[in-house]
Design a protein that fits this description.
The protein is built from five helices and eight strands; from the N terminus they run E-H-E-E-E-E-H-E-E-E-H-H-H. The chain is of the alpha/beta class and 141 residues long. It folds into two domains: 55 residues, 2,3-Dihydroxybiphenyl 1,2-Dioxygenase, domain 1 (Roll), CATH 3.10.180; 83 residues, 2,3-Dihydroxybiphenyl 1,2-Dioxygenase, domain 1. The model has no long low-confidence stretch (mean pLDDT 96).
Length: 141
Amino acid sequence: MKNKIYPCLWFDGQALEAAKFYCSIFKDSKIIDENPMVVLFELNGSKFMGLNGGPNFKFNEAVSLVVDCENQADIDDYWSKLTSDGGVEGNCGWLKDKYGVSWQIVPTILSKLMNDPLKSQKVMEVFMTMKKFDIQALENA
């Protein structure tokens, strides 16, 4: 039997609130189990643990959650929802949600564009000027 690996996110008493927030954003998501200390939840089939660990630790960009998006509508939707109610836009497809968790909202086509030796430099120059990714602008680079 394989050992499953999944992230534990440390919250200051907001684990259930955060799990409900994330489950409202991602389809096929649910809260699996909860108690006052720990909330287990799934987002698009990936398991997470939310821990009510207290104020000792804060999230930072050293760890981020990456969401691959097939189209601009998905990028726009995730970006809007994850930055709502106190989230903060970053550069190059990065953002922080209202709990301080860092996310990368990335078009799946980006790796293909970055692997094209004729386009990669221009694509990188274009996306370095973006906050939220614009697929059309990347393809036109």
